Amino acid sequence: MNAEAPLVEIADLTVRFRTPGRVVHAINGVDLHLNRGEVLTILGESGSGKSVTMRALMRLLPSRRTEIRGRVQVAGRSVLEMSQRQLSAFRGKVVSMIFQEPMLAFDPVFTVGDQIAETVCRHEGVSRKAGLDRALELFQLVQIPSPERRLKAYPHEMSGGMRQRAMIALALACRPQVLLADEPTTALDATVQIQILLLLRRLQKELGMSVIFVTHDMGVAVEISDRIAVMYGGRVVETGPVAEVIGNPRHPYTIGLMRSRASGGMKGQRLDAIPGAPPDLSDLPQGCAFAPRCPQAGEVCGASVPASVAVGQGHAVSCFQASALVDRADAHVGSGVP
Amino acid sequence: MLTYFSKRLLFMVPITLAVSLICFSLVHLSPGQPMDAVVSADAPAEVVELVRRAYGFDRPLPVQFGLWVQRAVQGDLGLSVATGRPVVLEVMGALKNTLILATAAALIGFPLGMLFGTLAGYFKGSLLDRLLTGIAVTGVSVPHYWLGMVLVIVFSVHLNMLPATGAGPGASTDWAFEAAYLRHLILPAVTLSVIPMGIMTRTIRAMVGEILAHDFVEALRAKGLPEWRVFLHVVKNAAPTALAVMGLQLGYLLGGSILVETVFSWPGTGMLLNNAIFRRDLPLLQGTILVLALFFLALNLLVDLAQTWLDPRIKRA
């Protein structure tokens, strides 16, 4: 763990959505941190709470129906305590986000160049002309061919890969300290996915950015990240350095994810899918959320939620069965936060 | 763009012809003779025959229609059977009054509809939304001739605040921009504004609700735009649809105010049509409908052009 304070610190985050007649427990006590210059991947299937965690970090969730508790610190500031004015100055400037579907994330009736310039003008108080100049630089940075012409294009006039490059340019417009990428390659063709991934990795190295990358694709996670946090049922179930989590997965869910992955060596073999379905977030089981699908679940698993236990260098897991193998006297940690 | 424009102009020709033909046939399908208004019921057969020939009503129907079209192309809509005045003059005078009434109704109805719709869309599901939607539904559902009569009873009969009929003092038909004339405008304009207000409210509410649910609104907030800038994006996205609805509603206001104009004796095209129907004044009826149809078509063309300009996704070559 670094001596300096982490750039992003999420502690005991809970998010609930109130809808008439039911309450959805989207996030149930998440602890996460991101160091400067680090890439953290949040891995999980849909409904695991990874996108909601991202949105809580920018407070993008609809305030009327959402209840957020816990602590969210970014660059030393408490996001949950900001005023609306502070919040809008913070978004896009300190933290910015790349969305999953660039076609839907751009306003269809403005040119892409204008939308990037708009962000630059908003945060840097410069003219539209200066904003467009900056947009041109960014288009060159993300390697969009004939950038001058593309600036004047509307989102629907670009290809999927080009749009995602433009989205990345938009996110980088004001040199944010933290970049959030919400499944940025999921909506793209496989060949384009790799290009975008390589671009993101190159930009991260060149600009020394801190990135939180959300994906359900383990291959993508391995490709890009330093650390992985696996989420299930609105909780982080396993976290650690990539090599640790992939090479020595301890949580039965992570192990299941590894097994259900298609790879070259498995040709002709049947894929090992995790049985059952993700939990209903409006009616979570009392104990470990994965227990109903877990091959190793015991009596204790249904009774209470397992705490996070260190199982290696920076590697922690929330599982009774996995931590039973570790010497309990070793260390009980809050989840990697010092 | 220019080819699109001329193509659209060309399309107007068959549409206008079809409108005229339908209207022509409808008049001849309905009972009664076009002469009934001019010749008294007990006039001798020779006189009736003479007048029929003078107006050309003795020719076969297709010939009558053909002759009418031929003259209309040259800007001659014939003479009114009932008054003997040129139809063009009658229609233009009435059209001016109807335009005034429709504009006034639009100036009341559209901004209110936009305001209510935006508020209801932004606060969907709230008490305010339910209240405004309630107003909109009432506005659309209430028969406006009935509303007109109720307004007359309240404001003219009981409160004696506003005049009940006519376009100006002393049954003047020539509207002028003066306080006395404006007082005459209030009740019919308010009555007429209720339907476009309701329709605008409901359309804009649905539009705003739909746009706010789009991912790009979240993306706009994520890049740090304050709420009023996000609102500007919503407005530009809603504008093409709102414009189309407004164009259509303005068209309805121009042609569809027959009942309201009759209730308030407003000397516009609606009342002209009403009178023409009751007097079987075929040339006047044909002429009025032709002019209104042309107006409606021109309005639609303008709306389409404006939409193309506002929404880059609509490509019309």
Silhouette of chain B: globular
Task: Give the CATH topology of the largest domain in chain B.
Answer: MetI-like fold
Distance between the termini of chain B: 6 Å
Low-confidence segments of chain B: none
Specify the oligomeric state.
Answer: heterodimer
Distance between the termini of chain A: 8 Å
The count of domains of chain B is 2
Estimated share of beta-strand residues of chain A = 15-25%
Summary tags:
heterodimer; A: 338 residues; alpha/beta; eight-stranded mixed β-sheet; four-stranded antiparallel β-sheet; 12 helices; disordered C terminus; B: 317 residues; mainly alpha; MetI-like fold
Walk me through this protein's architecture.
The complex is a heterodimer of chains A (338) and B (317). Chain A has 338 residues and is an alpha/beta fold. Chain A has a domain at 102-175. Chain A contains twelve helices and twelve strands. Chain A has helices spanning 50-58, 84-90, 102-105, 112-124, 128-141, 147-151, 160-172, 190-207, 218-224, 242-247, 252-259, 320-324; strands at 8-19, 22-34, 39-43, 66-74, 77-78, 95-98, 178-182, 210-215, 227-232, 235-241, 309-312, 315-317. Chain A has an eight-stranded mixed beta sheet, sandwiched between helices. A four-stranded antiparallel beta sheet of chain A has the order 2-1-4-5, with helices on one face. With 317 residues, chain B is mainly alpha-helical. The longest helix of chain B has 36 residues, at 87-122. Chain B is globular. The model of chain B has no long low-confidence stretch (mean pLDDT 83). Chain A binds chain B through residues 58, 60, 84-85, 88-93, 96-97, 99, 101, 104-111, 118-119, 122-123, 154, 156, 170, 173-174, and chain B through 214-216, 218-227, 229, 233, 236-237, 310-313.
Layout of strands and helices, then pairs:
The complex is a heterodimer of chains A (338) and B (317).
Chain A: E1 8-19, E2 22-34, E3 39-43, H1 50-58, E4 66-74, E5 77-78, H2 84-90, E6 95-98, H3 102-105, H4 112-124, H5 128-141, H6 147-151, H7 160-172, E7 178-182, H8 190-207, E8 210-215, H9 218-224, E9 227-232, E10 235-241, H10 242-247, H11 252-259, E11 309-312, E12 315-317, H12 320-324
Parallel strand pairs in A: 3-8, 3-9, 6-7, 7-8
Antiparallel strand pairs in A: 1-2, 1-4, 4-5, 9-10, 10-12, 11-12
Helix pairs in contact in A: 4-5, 5-7, 7-8
Chain B: H1 2-29, H2 45-55, H3 61-73, H4 87-122, H5 127-141, H6 144-158, H7 179-212, H8 215-222, H9 227-255, H10 258-263, H11 269-278, H12 282-310
